[in-house]
Write a structure and sequence with these properties.
The protein contains seven helices and twelve strands. By secondary structure, the protein is α+β, with helices and mostly antiparallel strands. The chain folds into two domains: about 110 residues, no CATH class; about 100 residues, Aminopeptidase (3-Layer(aba) Sandwich). Strands 1, 2, 3, 4, 5, 6, 7, 8, 9, 10, 11 and 12 form a twelve-stranded mixed β-sheet that branches.
Length: about 260
């Protein structure tokens, strides 16, 4: 059985991914045989995702949880990704899964570590002043969409369709924009599940990086979450470039995800 940290990390990611299925009128979220299938309604792989929702036992027949999404997205003619928390697979299924993904025409995309912190460590530097606004009107929606497009190199139209939609922000996925003066420079998002807060969409304008804006907005958002809910534990999936910062903030690696793309 995976440890509590791994279950908290994977469970929070599962809830965060549901955001994309709720963002547009023709999107949807389906639960099938222990897999969550999220479709945003656009043919953009990153926002059409299958996420393993529960542990897979050593019985290799359980690996059909990988095959189910392949048929689902093929019938809709959509490109998609599969997010697999490796510690939800027992030994034989973990080895076989890589072969099955290959047979289904899915290619490895990235393997972000899943991080957990019971509480954040104190900052090691003086952080810049950032005015943080929650995404809740057209201006903040548009700013979040623009910054996400630039930070993660996603087509602007795709980001506007997803993050610019008012209906996208009615669920558990809370977006935040950080401003320096009147200029939107950084973003993050928070998702609360049970006793942890997940952090997502940490991005900063390229010309504003390495000034501490991302750390500043993360700490302020988590402070607000703790004030509102009492929750201090936090989880995230890290990029290679962000890993050292997150370690300094008190996060530790507990699991790893394998992300495959059609």
């Amino acid at each position: 059985m995976p440890d509590r940290e791994t279950l908290a990390i994977s469970g929070n990611l599962l809830e965060a991914m549901r955001f994309f299925g709720r963002a547009r009128q023709n999107g949807d979220v389906l639960e099938q045989s222990g897999v969550c299938l999220v479709s945003c309604g656009l043919n953009y792989a990153a926002f059409n995702a299958a996420v393993l929702a529960e542990p897979v036992c050593a019985d290799l027949n359980d690996l059909r949880r990988i095959e189910i999404p392949a048929g689902h997205y093929k019938s809709r003619n959509l490109r998609w990704t599969y997010w697999l928390c490796e510690d939800l697979l027992e030994g034989p299924t973990r080895r076989e899964s890589k072969l099955l993904f290959h047979r289904l025409g899915l290619n490895p995309l990235t393997d972000p570590p899943g991080l957990f912190a019971d509480r954040l460590a104190p900052p090691r530097r003086i952080l810049p002043a950032v005015r943080v606004r929650r995404v809740e009107d057209e201006g903040t929606r548009n700013a979040f969409a623009h910054l996400t497009s630039v930070s993660f190199e996603i087509p602007a139209g795709i980001c506007q369709d997803i993050y610019g939609s008012a209906r996208a922000w009615t669920g558990s996925f809370e977006g935040y924009v950080g401003y320096v003066g009147e200029v939107a420079v950084t973003t993050t998002a928070a998702v609360v599940t049970k006793d942890v807060a997940g952090i997502y969409s940490v991005g900063t304008l390229p010309q504003c990086r390495r000034h501490g804006y991302a750390e500043a907005i993360m700490r302020e958002v988590l402070r607000q979450v703790k004030e509102r809910t009492g929750i201090e534990a936090t989880v995230l999936q890290s990029t290679v470039s962000g890993f050292s910062l997150y370690e300094q903030m008190g996060y530790r690696k507990y699991t790893k995800f394998s992300v495959y793309i059609s």
